[in-house]
Amino acid sequence: MEPNVFDKVQDVDLKKTMENSYIDYAMSVIVSRAIPDVRDGLKPVQRRVLYSLQSLGVTPDKKTKKCATIVGECMGKFHPHGDSSIYGALVYMGQSWSMRHVLVDKQGNFGSDDGDSPAAMRYTEAKMSKLAGEMLAGINKDTVDFMPNFSNEYDEPTVLPAKFPNLIVNGATGIAVGMATNIPPHNLREVIRAVDLIIDNRIKDQETTLEDIMKVIPGPDFPTGGIILGHKGIEEAYRTGRGKIKLRAVCEIEPMQNGKHRIVVKELPYLVYRSRVIENIANLVKDKKIDGITYINDASGKGSTAKINIELRKDVNPNVILNQLYKHTQLQTTFGVIMLCIVNGEPKILNLQQVLDEYLKHQVNVFTRRTKYDLNKAQERAHILEALLVAVDHIDEIVHTIRAAANTEQAKLDLSAKFGFDEGQAQAIVDMRLRALTGLERDKLKDEYDELEKKIAYYNEILGDPKKMLGVIKSEIDVIADKYADDRLTKFGYDDSIEDEDLIPDDDIVIAATRLGYVKRMSPENFKQQNRGGKGIKGMQTINDDIIEDLFMATNHHYIMFFTNTGRCFRIKAYNIPEASRTSRGTALVNLLQLGSDEHVTASFALKDDYPSSDQYLLLATKNGMVKKTPIADYANIRKTGLIAMTLRDDDQLIEAKLIDAGEDVMIGTRNGMAIRFNESDVRVTGRSSMGVRGISLDADDEVIGMQKLSQGDYVLVVSEKGMGKLTHADEFKAQKRGGKGLHCYRITEKTGKLVGFKLTSKEREIMLITNEGVIIRMSLKDAKDIGRNTSGVKFMNIDPDSDTVIASIAKVRESTTEAYEAELAETEAVPEDTENAGEDN
Length: 842
Hints:
Layout: H1 14-34, H2 44-56, E1 65-66, H3 67-77, H4 83-92, E2 104-107, E3 125-128, H5 130-136, E4 146-148, E5 155-157, H6 166-170, E6 172-175, E7 180-183, H7 188-203, H8 210-216, E8 227-229, H9 232-240, E9 242-248, E10 250-255, E11 261-267, H10 274-286, E12 293-298, E13 308-312, H11 318-328, E14 332-338, E15 340-343, E16 346-349, H12 352-393, H13 395-404, H14 408-419, H15 423-430, H16 439-464, H17 466-484, E17 491-493, E18 508-514, E19 518-522, E20 537-538, E21 548-555, E22 559-564, E23 568-573, E24 587-588, E25 601-607, E26 617-622, E27 626-631, E28 643-644, E29 654-660, E30 665-670, E31 674-679, E32 693-694, E33 704-709, E34 715-720, E35 724-729, E36 743-744, E37 755-761, E38 766-771, E39 775-780, E40 794-795, E41 807-813, H18 818-827
Parallel strand pairs: 8-17
Antiparallel strand pairs: 1-3, 2-3, 4-5, 6-7, 8-9, 9-14, 10-11, 11-13, 12-13, 15-16, 18-19, 18-21, 19-24, 20-39, 22-23, 22-25, 23-28, 26-27, 26-29, 27-32, 30-31, 30-33, 31-36, 34-35, 34-37, 35-40, 38-39, 38-41
Helix pairs in contact: 2-3, 2-4, 3-4, 7-8, 7-17, 12-15, 12-16, 13-14, 14-15, 16-17
């Protein structure tokens, strides 16, 4: 009866089985596929391709062979894992833009540096490069171990002799299971100099430090050139085996006709493709993240030194555009170094010194085995020559002995018995030709024997003296440097982390914004000072009931804080607001800020520092008279999507924002000519998203038009919509508790209209008035007279009473230079410069 088949079924732990199987798979991927060996810097498939070229005889001095033949040889004998991986490795080793020194000489389409695929293997040809020949030199002299192939029919090398440090010179990249390697390529001459340094120090019994090596190898040398920014990332990578190296394209700014400029990209960072960069730039221009690029094209081609041409608009700063391209595209990228390699069959992360030490250890082993091989061959030949020389000296007796023997075997035995020859020597004498009997041939044999004796002594001397061996290794690799090394392609630059503002002068500017949400940046020089009562100049083109709502002074380097009617705040640099002419409309704020559908900017100011002092507060005011005080530090990190600045009731809107110091007095003015003065200490500190407290009590038809700090000036400036205005000393407004109705600050009549502007200023300042039609007048307050609280003032601007023109906004003008402004701040004991709120001039 047959045994039960179920007796052969074994119960196993599925969890344990899966773990063991996955570990085996992972180690196979790590050791046998993705990670290079530290000794020759090659992955198994690359090593097998090169050995297949050797076995096919496709050496540097021979003609190329079809890649299909090479792939077939490799797949059939050594790498049974599909032709795509083999051909991919073959192509990679022949791409001069991928490897610093190619190991395969290509013939045909091997792809392009723009990421194009190579032609099929039946169309392309290849052979071993001269430098690859140095990788395999001496492989037939027992320099490395061999192992059986997958079918036990052939032997393949476990590692190549590798006369030069290929792992560092050509680098490597690979993704295994749970780990990855990314080793940058280096300059061959520099790497060999570093090995020479290590050898010299060992001969002198001195230690070589990483600092010594880094003086010889300053950094990677990529085949595509480019610029490495700074040395910090390089040092970290060389010291620990991990680091980030900043790479930048080589770009030049060239002038064009009509005052325009273009940016010419001449070298791209390693493994960055032109087409992707061009596509990326086009998308940035389309999304309006970069403004000023008019045309971009691929400039590469036969004989061309340029890669990409980027033409710019006439009115933009080319350095700023270039800096934006570095920031937003792969014209500046990061190479993450992970120096992972296989060391004694295990994956390890090594630093630069350890990699070179492992290479040198491999070379010592290869050289020792090669020398022993040559020594054995020399000794074997010398042993035969000793017998031949004896035979020539006793030729008659040798001939007689051979002739008397019945057969060859007997002759060999007789010779061994008479002359003491061993079997090898006896066989050589039996095989000796008659020409060896001549005197000339004997001299040749003697010369050969003497030369072999010298070689044997030399080999023994090298094997017995490690320092002498190191010296010979040094001389051999120096020959490789002399033959194949070239100049460095990648240059070094300062990692200055240039921001846009570093390229933009900190000039004074005027920021103007309209009710419909347009904003622009202008120079104050556009506006000439006029006398009081003038007609003004055309300042901004407006459309369909649009009016200027905000106008203030700042500098290019200020942060512009925008507050919306819904209580949110945004922040951008002033230079990011597009510059425009005096008569242009400007740029829609929705293109600069992520505003909601019913959201618009109602207040803004300029902030000098990114992180203001913690003892300052942000004071917000609403149309309905609410105020809120919050530490400015709560607004230090504002997202691009905005930040909640204040919670509002449904019918309320945020209209003003100020930076205040402890103990400051604040004034609030209303459209109906009321004003209240109170100390900021009356407003308790609340959280960023709170609603606040009441600042002033309003009549039913009234609303707040402005909030000012007493530190901004000694005089209250009010301007009505019909062009009337006045200055009143701030002392006429006695401090009250917040929440009251306040005092009259202006007499409203039909002739004056209601108030549109409420500012605190000094008589040394100038002001700007702008109408709803965009007409601007700039005037000095130096000659203006003090007028009491409850009066209507004098005419500031001529306005046609029969038209619909009204004053829309007013702004104070500071001195035309930053230095003068700062001096004025010091005299008036204003807020310190590093946290000065330039927009609060308004």
